[in-house]
Design brief:
alpha/beta; Rossmann fold; four-stranded antiparallel sheet; 10 strands; globular
């Protein structure tokens, strides 16, 4: 086990019972991700990318293997413990923004902070929205915001509790190309600013180039594992 790693996966397997047969989703994934880095996970549709993210966040329990995040073995936790662990350690940004429509931007960002018992929830939420350039939209509802603004609120909500790891699953999937580029730049700016570990699922190789490391997954297995440093060494040879 890599002692510098914030996330360890050991022989992760995931399967489901289909109609009379077993469907294999993940087929023995082994992975260490170091703290403070950024990792892109690329792969074709149906390759197991989103299932892998679900296992890494404890939203899906693997059939076999061990998941360790920030020194905690997720397999040993019940659902309530996992929910508390995610609240305190993990931020998730999805393709669909999942904002609460009856709450303002400020209230949406304050929710996880309030659930954590933070007395300064609204103050921290306002600061988080400032980090994503939405100080002027605090009291707007999701329906009053553009797609890009809604995703910024979702990013602020994920970052506000100062999580150790941010998981992003196709965060620009519902945005036009120009807005998507701005969102990607914002995610990486915040990741570096707060030294957060970033794990991003994407189909876009240009987005993946922003990351320190790229993983390619096919048929539930990591088939390629490359880093910026390794690519630079190849160029220098």
């Amino acid at each position: 086990m890599n002692n510098k790693a914030i996330l360890h996966l050991r022989d992760i397997r995931l399967s489901f019972r289909g109609e009379g047969h077993e469907i294999q989703i993940l087929n023995g994934v082994n992975l260490d991700i170091e703290k403070g880095g950024s990792v892109a996970i690329l792969g074709p549709s149906g390759s197991g990318k989103s299932s892998l993210l679900s296992v890494m966040t404890g939203l899906e329990k693997q059939t076999a293997g061990e998941v360790s995040v920030a020194g905690h073995i997720l397999d040993r936790m019940n659902e309530d413990q996992l929910a508390l662990f995610r609240r305190d350690n993990i931020g998730i940004v999805l393709q669909s923004f999942h904002l609460i429509p009856t709450m303002t931007a400020l209230e949406n960002v304050a929710v996880p902070l309030e659930l954590a018992g933070r007395r300064d929830a609204f103050q921290e939420a306002e600061q988080a929205l400032s980090h994503v350039g939405l100080s002027h939209r605090l009291n707007h509802y999701p329906s009053q915001l553009s797609g890009g603004e809604q995703q910024r609120v979702a990013i602020a909500r994920a970052m506000a509790p100062n999580p150790q790891i941010i998981f992003a699953d196709e965060p620009t999937g519902n945005l036009d190309a120009k807005t998507g580029r701005r969102i990607i730049d914002l995610i990486f700016d915040l990741q570096k600013k707060f030294n957060t570990t970033l794990i991003m699922i994407t189909h876009d190789r240009e987005v993946a180039k922003h990351c320190d490391r790229t993983l390619h997954i096919e048929d539930g297995l990591i088939v390629e594992n490359s880093s910026v440093a390794a690519s630079s060494e190849k160029v220098a040879e």
